[in-house]
Amino acid sequence: MPRKYGTTVHVSSRRPLMLRLKGTVILAIWRQLLLIGLFSAIVYLIFRFSSWKMPYSLSLVSVMGMVVSLLLVFRTNTAYDRYWEGRRLWSQMTLCIRNLTRTIWVCVQETETRDLLEKKSAINLLVAFAFATKHYLRDEYGYNYDDMIKLLSHIPKYSIPTSTQPMESKQALAFDLLTPTNIPVELSYYIGSYIKSCSNKGKIDASSVTVMNNALVSMMDCLTGFERILRTPIPLAYSIHLHHATWIYLLALPFQLVSNMGAVMIPATMLAAFTLLGILGIGYEIENPFNDDYNDLPLDDFCKVIQAEVDSMVAARAPVPAEWIFSENNYPLVQSHLSARDLSLLSLDEVHSLMQSENPRYTKEEEEKEKARVKHQKSAQPQRKDNDNGDGNISSVAAIGVGADTSND
User: Which of 290, 291, 308, 304 minimizes the C-alpha distance to 4?
Assistant: First the structure.
């Protein structure tokens, strides 16, 4: 059963993960495991039937095991970071394609049939960009693929027969056959020219043009990020040293275990080799997440999802707000049981009154408390004024008394 792209992960089999073989690295390392087992058996036979005594100390196992473990952890984390970065960049590219499709389909004006056909053709290029990126990351250069040829049939470079092309185009085509072509970059030129054409003809406002250009720039940024992951492998010296350290540890392990474990040392060494070589194999498996292996990113499914979403988006005419807002089935005020069309016949104050009654600021108890508080404040204000007047009269009398005493003196 093929993998499914959806909300669940690893749904291709009902068997427990422990019993699954597909998707593991066992098929890639089983020869190495047999080699380790054969070497361990030879060490055991030498120990069993000869007088040569093997080293007994386990210090080498402890020291080498810790070093190899740290190297393998770093290697696996580095590989998974590349895997996750590839997934993050693809999600960002998907977001840009969605935004560009939405902006073109909704914001670009349609005054005639040609405008609609131009919009649909430009949106087809966005879908083709996703498929072209997938093939480009897998070193599948060219455009003669079932998922691309129909989307690029209206591009002159890919539709005109070679015999009818001018000499310059023939030379360019011959150059493409000898050197890898970056079709996603070429498609960005056509998408950018469409945005420029819409802006020059006044079919779209300036803010939407900015949004579309920013989305196109982000798509190219994602493509450059894909190339960074694809063209920048782990340094060769580090990979070689990691292999050397792992194999030295595995080849030294039988000499350290045979004295204590005897023949049991053979499966024990193979188990240790399965663990370490398996981690090493996983790192190389996910280092390049763009291939079509089982543990790579399901780019085929991602592209199909993008195509399905875009086809669903452009299957109907761009929604007009007046059609869905002022519909008889739209009830903005739930408690009023009036549709938006009925509410539009009322005055602005009446609608505000209905909204206020539907969403009161206070509950009944809170409203009573608020009224009591306001009433108390109003009743306290005259009393405060009377107190102020009384204090003023007392001050005046006191001042008069002081003046009289002064005159008597």
Answer: 304
Name, in order, each residue with C-beta under 8 angstroms of 95's C-beta and a sequence gap of 6 or more: 218
**N residues, the chain:** 409
Phi then psi for residue 338, to 5 deg, are -115, 135
Query: What does the buried/exposed string (b/e) look like for 19-48 if buried means 16 or more CB atoms within 10 Å of the residue's CB?
Result: eeeebbbeeebeebbebbbebbbebbeebe
Distance, in Å, from the CA atom of 250 to the CA atom of 51, rounded to the nearest integer, reads: 24
DSSP SS3 for 120? helix
- pLDDT per residue as tens, the chain (409 positions): 444 444 444 545 567 777 777 778 888 899 999 999 999 999 999 888 887 766 556 677 788 888 898 999 999 999 999 999 999 999 999 999 999 999 999 999 988 999 999 999 999 999 999 999 999 999 888 878 888 888 887 787 765 554 444 444 444 443 444 345 789 999 999 999 999 999 999 999 999 999 999 999 999 999 999 999 999 988 889 889 999 999 999 998 998 888 888 899 999 999 999 999 999 999 988 999 999 888 899 999 999 999 999 999 988 888 888 888 888 888 888 777 788 888 888 888 888 888 887 665 555 565 566 567 656 766 765 555 555 555 554 444 334 343 444 444 4
Dig out the tokens for 246 from the structure: 């792992």
Please give the Cα distance from 169 to 177 (Å, whole number).
Answer: 12
Q: Give me the residue spans of the domains in the chain.
A: 17-313, 321-358
99: its two tokens: 């935004």
- Do the beta carbons of residue 286 and residue 82 sit within 8 Å? yes
| Amino acid letter for position 194 | Y
CB 129 within 8 A of CB 97: yes
pTM for the predicted model, two decimal places: 0.76
Are 256 and 60 in contact, with CB atoms under 8 Å apart? Answer: yes
Residue 379 in tokens: 């009743």
Q: Count other C-beta atoms under 10 Å from residue 396's C-beta.
A: 10
d(CA 163, CA 169): 10
What element of type H or E holds 194? helix 183-200
* Pair 137, 230: CB distance under 8 Å: yes
